[in-house]
Amino acid sequence: LVMSTYPDLIWELNTLGQSIIHVAALHRHSSIFNLIHEIGQTKDFVLTFMDDEGSTLLHCVAKLAPQERLNIVSGAALQMMLELSWFEEVKKIMLPSFIELANHEGITPRELFIKDHQELLKKGESWMKRTANSCMVVSTLIATGVFSAAFSVPGGNNDNLGSPNYLTKPWFMVFALSDALALVSSSTSILIFLSILISRYAEEDFLKSLPLKLIFGLVALFISIISMMVSFSSAFFITYYHGTTWVPIFIASLAILPITLFIFLQYPLWYDILYSTYICGSLFRPSKRMIH
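Structure for PGG domain-containing protein, as requested:
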């Protein structure tokens, strides 16, 4: 409302020589920063503004955001992703000659970003490694269990032919397919989490590489848990279905519990990752014009 009433406010400077765009970038207010896309050809002129310290707009966004702005996402790794998104977005619109321009202290925006985000980078690395390590342990246990189940099939093997006794039963095919899917998906998640653990953890890795690996690893782990429980339930149907039918049905119902528990316990992590990805993708897409 203020910007619509006083559009010339964008040219005003504070006591530090900063425009409203510089202050918005410094405090990570995307709705105000997006005004830069509404001022037409004068944008290039605003991008040349330097404050009393000789800092450009890119220097402003290279500084660590205030804690209350970082806290819009949880987890140091996801906060690092948000900070990198801001830096890269501002870098896109900067004039080429201003991208590596040093301030009065002789520090370039990239150097300032690395200096101010050292502690956040260390916390992000620690958070990512703890998460990947915990998930990798679970994936390894699942892979070990389903691998053993593949060679100790329910009902045993025919002594003469060596083939499973219930090979022609529909539930045996369910068991075989779900067990194979559990082994493949758990092995995949192990490799993904291993790649996270041995990653170089450079700043740019937190922008896309590490969050995407974590998402794919969790998806593979979730598929392996579902497949393992389907395999477990089908094994009970094969073994006990000719006796008391309520036993395998009851066991299959209980198998839903671990899946539900995994969803419930991992929901905060899923929400943080997807929300952070959405936030980073939508920050710089203004939904409506503020200057008319």
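The radius of gyration is 27 Å.
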